[in-house]
Inverse folding.
């Protein structure tokens, strides 16, 4: 429990993947790799017609990559591997031959915004504010950037990236296309999730697979692009500027 977990189950044609980490669902590299593997596994399981991605807790959907792991990086290769964590998850979601539905029950930061963006359909509640905070600690949302920009457009992506210390509301996210629907309560959201997944579980799998492929046309280079982006962040995290920015952030936390 202290190290977090990934679990999955299939119920009535819907595959549910749940992730959790005690530090506001901030994800260390090993959990991200497990999450990517679980998405790939359910993508191949014929019993799962649709995939729902969700997290435990009620305050944060995902606070991004593990800060403890970030501050321990001392060389480029370790940095590249660290930042490749969310690349693996995003690419697994992108390549899954089934629709991936995200259930966002709390705030999304950094990589959490990337997961919400990489989903094919995202539900959220009113308190699910979003922030791309990477620039505030001396790096940038390089890995999640392609997924976020694809979903909300260049202008909104630039707003999130440049104003890195400010939260944007769930309603802002809905207006920009990140969230398909926003609800007052988790209970209302879960009813909507169940209603949609029930319909999709009874839909033609081949048709959904073809639609998914069409929807993601133009992203075929992401297997290499996101790793190249991870190397950019891995290089920056070693710089004196970023080390100082992280230490200041630690003192405030």
């Amino acid at each position: 429990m202290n190290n977090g977990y990934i679990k999955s189950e299939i119920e009535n044609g819907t595959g549910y993947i749940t992730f959790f980490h005690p530090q506001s669902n901030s994800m260390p590299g090993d959990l991200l790799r497990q999450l990517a593997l679980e998405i790939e596994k359910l993508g191949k399981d014929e019993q799962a017609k649709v995939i729902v991605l969700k997290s435990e807790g009620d305050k944060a959907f995902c606070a991004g990559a593990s800060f403890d792991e970030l501050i321990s990086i001392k060389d480029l290769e370790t940095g590249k591997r660290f930042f490749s964590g969310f690349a693996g998850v995003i690419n697994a979601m992108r390549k899954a031959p089934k629709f991936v539905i995200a259930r966002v029950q709390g705030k999304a930061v950094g990589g959490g915004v990337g997961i919400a963006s990489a989903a094919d359909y995202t539900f959220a509640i009113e308190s699910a504010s979003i922030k791309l905070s990477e620039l505030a600690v001396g790096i940038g949302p390089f890995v999640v950037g392609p997924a976020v920009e694809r979903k909300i457009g260049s202008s909104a992506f630039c707003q999130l990236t440049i104003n890195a210390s400010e939260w944007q509301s769930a309603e802002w996210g809905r207006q920009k296309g990140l969230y398909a629907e926003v609800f007052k309560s988790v209970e209302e959201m879960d009813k909507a999730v169940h209603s949609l997944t029930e319909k999709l579980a009874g839909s033609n799998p081949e048709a959904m697979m073809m639609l998914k492929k069409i929807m993601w046309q133009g992203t075929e280079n992401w297997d290499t692009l996101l790793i190249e982006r991870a190397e950019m962040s891995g290089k920056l995290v070693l710089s004196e500027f970023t080390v100082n920015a992280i230490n200041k952030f630690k003192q405030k936390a």
